[in-house]
């Protein structure tokens, strides 16, 4: 029988005892110990991955790799934990099986009694008995206490592991081989730390985390103009805000594109986190990490369909830590109400004009064309999650409709699409509002002047916000529509005029990008929502626009110009006509300056692109 045998050594002390986790100690009790032990670290801005995990996830991470959990027990209570997991390691300092030491925690009231050192000794005995070559500790860069202890027990730093907002020191204790010289370890560690620094787009986030507001509102969005509008609307009452930027992967397909966006320069932005677009697992992990920072309930504002669906579906998990738009007591209701066919049925029942439409299921490889369709018709995904705006098509004939349905099936799979009668639109409108489930506030409406193209199809480049006026009857009907959903939060509604009749188009249970113009005109719906969620009255807040103003969305206009949909002269004309730019702001000038830098760079890039294209055409002709 080896040194460990069937009965591993139990380190005893008159105050505590260290043993392998017995069956009567649950994984939930271990998780609670880890959570409580790291409370002090969280207040210092030290956030580690393992205290974000559930009890089941902790168990799986240890048992799946054949590891063991040691616990320090005093008076029948777990006061400390430490796990060891066998892994294979290949690094500059060697190759072979090693003991990965993790999930270390000691309750604050039991520190200073030597518990952590005893836990390390137990793990070392365990590792030596199994002939592991070394022990490896991964310690947060700002956890000075554990870094000091690891050096005292014979560990040396050999490298850094870079994460989104910090790096960890890799500390190794050699058990079998002769360790490299201290100089070699220090040199390799310095190189690894330099590389970790270069991976970050700016100074390490963790160095400034201690000064970050743990309860700052959290905004999740994909476009920097929308996120910036929300941040500026929330900042007057809530101070700075934190942003979750939904981004794509870089060209290698592995690393997220963490290039600093325009909104990150704003004085209203506290910090920026990054998450892959449409990656629910990554967003879940990020929000779990944010719950560790949260001291009270934070405001969580989804700014696109993906984040709105996810927050709604996970409201039971998020509710203890966040306030967010939702349908009370009905997880998944937001996604169900974003179904365009369901919206139109409700609108029709309330007396709103709605174009005739039919739902087509693309589950079959060759879907049958619906008979009750008049041409031309308009085709779009039934819900935004199923497709993208650029997939919308106008079809003049059955053959074009068949091609369009095949196109959607190839790009988005067996989804459902809405085929509706095509209406010649005279004027497009939109409105934004807030509902607390009992009262709906709609301050006015937006008349769209110039619309975006390509991937910005349906997004306003320039428009005018107006008091209710002639639209008052329609806005009252929209209030009834929103009340029927039971929704509590911000929303926007698209509608249009055709042949003298107003038609309902779409209800989005999230804040529309053009709604920032309402804030600039004196009606801050974001502040209303924040106060409502915190149980404060809305007395004294203006609820109706008293003036008209023209707004201009620089981001959409600039991208349309770059793609060739808008001339530079037209861009400048639309900008000069506007009373409310969405990005340039004298009170918050840095985003505007960053936008100008980007615009100059894009002008150079566009000139090169056009010139290079001409050269390619010439070569082909030759």
Largest sheet: 8 strands, mixed
Radius of gyration: 29 Å
Helix-strand makeup class: alpha+beta
The shape is elongated
Strand order of the largest sheet: 1-2-3-4-5-6-8-7
Count of individual beta strands:
25
Can you name the CATH architecture of the largest domain?
A: 3-Layer(aba) Sandwich
Whole-number average pLDDT?
Answer: 84
Counted up, domains total 4
Task: Kindly describe this structure.
With 622 residues, the chain is α+β, with helices and mostly antiparallel strands. The chain has 4 domains: 11-200, Aminopeptidase, CATH 3.40.630; 212-324, Rossmann fold (3-Layer(aba) Sandwich), CATH 3.40.50; 428-588, 2-Layer Sandwich (D-amino Acid Aminotransferase, Chain A, domain 1); 589-622. It is built from 20 helices and 25 strands. The chain has an 8-stranded mixed beta sheet with strand order 1-2-3-4-5-6-8-7. Strand 1 and strand 2 form a beta hairpin. Helix 1 (27-37) crosses helix 3. The longest helix is centred in the last third of the chain and has 32 residues, at 590-621. The protein starts with 10 loop residues before the first strand and ends with a helix. The model is unreliable at 1-9, 201-211 and 614-622 (pLDDT under 50).
């Amino acid at each position: 029988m080896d040194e460990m045998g069937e009965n591993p050594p139990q380190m005893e002390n008159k105050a505590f005892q260290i043993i392998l986790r017995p069956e009567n100690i649950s994984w939930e009790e271990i998780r609670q110990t880890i959570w409580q032990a790291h409370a002090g670290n969280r207040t210092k801005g030290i956030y580690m991955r393992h205290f974000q995990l559930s009890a089941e996830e902790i168990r799986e991470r240890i048992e799946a790799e054949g590891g063991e959990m040691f616990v320090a027990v005093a008076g029948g209570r777990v006061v400390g934990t430490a796990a060891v997991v066998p892994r294979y390691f290949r690094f500059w300092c060697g190759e072979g099986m090693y003991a990965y030491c993790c999930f270390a925690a000691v309750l604050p009231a039991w520190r200073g009694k030597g518990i952590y050192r005893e836990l390390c000794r137990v793990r070392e005995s365990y590792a030596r008995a199994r002939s592991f070559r070394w022990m490896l500790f991964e310690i947060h860069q700002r956890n000075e206490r554990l870094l000091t202890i690891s050096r005292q027990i014979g560990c040396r730093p050999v490298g850094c592991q870079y994460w989104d907002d910090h790096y960890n020191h890799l500390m190794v204790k050699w058990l079998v081989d002769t360790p490299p010289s201290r100089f070699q370890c220090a040199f390799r560690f310095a190189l690894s730390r330099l590389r970790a620094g270069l991976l970050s787009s700016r100074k390490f986030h963790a160095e400034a985390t201690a000064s970050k507001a743990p309860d700052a509102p959290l905004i999740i969005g994909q476009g920097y103009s929308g996120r910036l509008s929300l941040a500026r609307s929330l900042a007057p009452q809530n101070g700075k805000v934190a942003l979750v930027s939904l981004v794509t992967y870089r060209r290698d397909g592995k690393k997220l594109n963490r290039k600093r966006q325009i909104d990150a320069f704003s004085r209203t932005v506290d910090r920026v986190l990054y998450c892959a677009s449409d990656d629910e697992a990554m967003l879940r992990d990020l929000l779990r990490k944010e719950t560790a920072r949260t001291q009270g309930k934070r405001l969580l504002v989804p700014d696109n369909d993906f984040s709105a669906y996810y927050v709604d579906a996970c409201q039971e998990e998020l509710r203890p830590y966040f306030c967010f738009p939702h349908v009370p007591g009905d997880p998944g209701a937001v996604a169900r109400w974003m179904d365009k066919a369901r919206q139109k049925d409700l609108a029709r029942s309330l007396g709103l004009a709605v174009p005739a439409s039919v739902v087509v299921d693309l589950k079959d490889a060759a879907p049958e064309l619906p008979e009750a369709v008049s041409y031309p018709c308009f085709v779009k995904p039934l819900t935004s999650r199923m497709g993208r705006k650029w997939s919308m098509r106008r079809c003049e004939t059955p053959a074009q409709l068949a091609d369009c349905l095949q196109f959607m099936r190839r790009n988005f799979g067996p989804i459902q699409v809405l085929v509706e009668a095509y209406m010649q639109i005279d004027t497009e409108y939109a409105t934004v509002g807030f509902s607390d489930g009992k009262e709906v506030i709609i301050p006015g409406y937006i008349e769209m002047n110039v619309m975006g193209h390509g991937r910005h199809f349906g997004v306003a480049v320039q428009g005018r916000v107006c008091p209710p006026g002639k639209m008052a009857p329609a806005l009252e009907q929209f209030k009834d529509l929103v009340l029927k959903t039971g929704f509590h939060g911000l929303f926007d509604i698209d509608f249009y005029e055709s042949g003298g009749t107003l038609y309902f188009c779409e209800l989005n249970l999230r804040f529309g990008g053009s709604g920032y113009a309402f804030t600039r005109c004196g009606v801050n719906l974001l502040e209303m929502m924040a106060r409502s969620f915190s149980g404060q009255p809305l007395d004294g807040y203006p609820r109706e626009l008293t003036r008209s103003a023209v707004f201009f969305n620089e981001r959409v206009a600039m991208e349309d110009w770059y793609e060739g949909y808008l001339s530079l002269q037209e861009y400048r004309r639309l900008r000069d006509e506007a009373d409310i730019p969405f990005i340039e702001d004298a009170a918050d000038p840095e985003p505007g300056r960053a936008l100008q830098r980007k615009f100059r760079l894009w002008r150079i890039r566009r000139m090169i692109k056009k010139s290079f294209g001409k050269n390619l055409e010439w070569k082909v002709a030759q």
